[in-house]
Amino acid sequence: MPEMTLIDAVRAAMDEELARDPRVFITGEDVGKRGGVFRATMGLYEKYGEKRIVDSPLAELSIVAIGIGAACAGLIPICEIQFADFIHPAFNQIVNEAAKMYYRSGGAWNVPLTIRAPYGGGIGGGLYHSQSVEAFFTHVPGLKVVIPSTPYDAKGLLKSAVRDPNPVLFFEPKKGYRSIKGEVPAGEYTVPIGKARVARQGNDVSVYAYGMMAHYAVQAAEQVAHEDGIQCDVIDLRTLLPIDKETILASFKKTGKALIVYEDNLTMGYGAEIAAILCSDGFEYMDAPIMRLGGPDVPAVPFSHPLQEAFMPNPHKIAAAIRQLAAY
Amino acid sequence: MTALTKTQLSRPSAQLSAETLLEMYWYMLLARRTDERAWVLHRQGKIAFHISGMGHEATQVGAAFAINRGVDYVAPYYRDLALCMAIGITPRDFMLSLFGKAGEVTSKARQMPSHWSSKPHHILSASSPVATQVPQAAGMAFAIKYKRENGLIDPNDTSQPRLALTCLGEGSTSQGEWHEGMNWAGVHKLPFICIVQNNNYAISVPIEHQMAVSHVAERAVAYGVQGVTVDGTDVLAVYDVMRDAVQRAYSGEGATLIEAKCYRLTPHSSDDDDRTYRPREEVEEAKRADPILRYERYLSERGILTDALKQEYEQRARKIVDEAQRYAESAPYPEESSLYEDIYA
């Protein structure tokens, strides 16, 4: 099986979907000749032409709105927002329009739209190239929110997103675009939206994470297993909305101890909902206070390297939190 | 009977049959009588909300008759009662929406009234924040062009949508969404028509506080699209400029911005009181220039609309509106369980 980077897997998924269905097209800033600023669409313009790989004007809400209209008119758009930080001008189109279209038309107009955006910090991107925006959208019924952490899942989930009849936000951990590598089968397979993945098995502590943090969580779990003999169950959530409560609770039932890791600001972040699920539906399994490790509650990730590193969770910080929880 | 001038004869509307001219009159009248009934129902305390299209009927019906109704895509705004009726929304559909009753076809009674949608008629579902539909309609037009260029449809297949039409008020052109939609339409030469129904007020704010240009259509230059201003109280004048725009869209020549000047004969909505910002003389003058009266005069002068026919239309409209109201009043409310339907496709 060929080994691929995360971004190669993203590209492979789009390539295969473009080849599979002539209704699939890509639009976004610099997705054409340039192949995307992260090179996610590299080579697709040459292969599929300017009629299907469409450079958009530099206006994010229009990228999403054009996608909504095109989706309602029978196409299957893949819209790229260059950085998740730039998705906010499109917030109204995503939250008020795409998410509500099916409900507000009584189930008549659905929006088969995929919005891809690189997200997350640790890459020297400062306040506006580092944000984690998932919690804004996981609050919105009608949307699906997917964040892969492995190349295998990136390809399989993105193909599922493209085929989904609903609007799917597909956030890609850009710090891992080239550093995360893994085996990816050539050709057709999909990974279902709505299912978390048990990334590592253990009976002592459950670690819930997604995206780059899932990758770090596995590293931290290996470290504490090796150094402290603590065995972690690591749950890579993969789909944030809809939530896979079953897998989340099954792990907690086994360990009774939960650490939730995310790089968004801690307060009102996605981990708060996981904690609430564990409290309400998993109370009888609980063996320790539920613990969250997130970014600090400062407006965004600063540019200066030491400040950035102080903001970001990393394997070392995660390992420390696991030890603290295991000792409870 | 007054003869048409030479210029008038060369207009596309001169080719319309008496039957079609009367059908246009019928939809203007039906929309007006339905609209008036909604105001009465509101004043009687029977419904919670109404937003009116009175005064805009000529623009909307002129536009509807120029496109392939029910086939071409339409992304309307809240004043488009006459437009949507001419395409296929019925007084019964509208009454069910006013009352929020079960069987309401546009949204299962989830949306406030006048938030149109009908997929069978290719009317895109509309929301409340203004101008959101403009870039979406550009997206629909983009899809049409995409399908043509990628061989997914035959460009001459009249059973397929060949353009996307969207409407909004002049106040809504202050939104960035309008700009972004117009820009796409220009850049990609989309089969797209945007009608700005310019009634001079964004609720209470007069046009001079919304824009520094004297005509919305002047902005077309900035997007590289055709721009035209038309008297929106003249249904046939609107039809004529629309036919040009439709031909441009169908033949792949690009988008058109039409500014239709009209007047809102009522307050913005049932919750508004326009006496606080519009002089009564101005409203009275507009009522004398009512687009429906104007069209009645035109049809009468040409012997197309007789008094007897007018009476017959009035009676028919009244009967339809009465029946629609009765049906909606006696219809049940939606089941509570429907709250949870249609979240995901």
Output the helix-strand order of chain B.
HHHEHHHEHEEEHEHEHHH
Largest interface: A-B, 42 and 49 residues
Quaternary structure type: heterodimer
Number of helices of chain A: 12
CATH architecture designation of the largest domain in chain A: 3-Layer(aba) Sandwich
CATH fold-level name of chain B: Rossmann fold
User: How many separate domains make up the residues of chain B?
Assistant: 1
Number of domains of chain A: 2
CATH superfamily of the largest domain in chain A: Thiamin diphosphate (ThDP)-binding fold, Pyr/PP domains
Q: What share of residues of chain B is helical? A: 40-55%
CATH architecture of chain B: 3-Layer(aba) Sandwich
The span between the termini of chain A is 42 Å
User: Outline of chain A, from the CA principal axes?
Assistant: globular
What do these coordinates show?
- The complex is a heterodimer of chains A (328) and B (345).
- Chain A has helices spanning 6-20, 44-48, 60-72, 91-98, 101-104, 134-138, 151-163, 212-228, 245-255, 270-281, 305-311, 315-326; strands at residues 3-5, 24-28, 53-55, 76-80, 114-119, 144-146, 168-173, 181-183, 197-200, 205-209, 232-236, 239-241, 258-265, 291-295.
- Chain A starts with a strand and ends with a helix.
- Chain A is an alpha/beta fold and 328 residues long.
- The radius of gyration of chain A is 19 Å and the shape is globular.
- In chain A, strand 13 (258-265), helix 10 (270-281) and strand 14 form a beta-alpha-beta unit.
- Chain B has a single domain (15-331), classed as Rossmann fold (3-Layer(aba) Sandwich), CATH 3.40.50.
- In chain B, 43% of the residues lie in helices and 9% in strands.
- Chain B has helices spanning 6-9, 18-43, 57-66, 81-87, 91-99, 133-149, 176-187, 220-223, 235-250, 280-288, 291-301, 307-330; strands spanning 73-75, 164-169, 192-198, 201-202, 205-206, 226-231, 256-261.
- In chain B, the strands form two sheets. A five-stranded parallel beta sheet of chain B has the order 1-2-3-7-6, with helices on both faces. Chain B has a two-stranded antiparallel ribbon with strand order 4-5.
- In chain B, helix 2 packs antiparallel against helix 11.
- The radius of gyration of chain B is 20 Å and the shape is globular.
- The termini of chain B are far apart.
- The mean pLDDT of chain B is 96.
- At the A-B interface, helix 3, helix 4 and helix 5 of A face helix 6 and helix 7 of B.
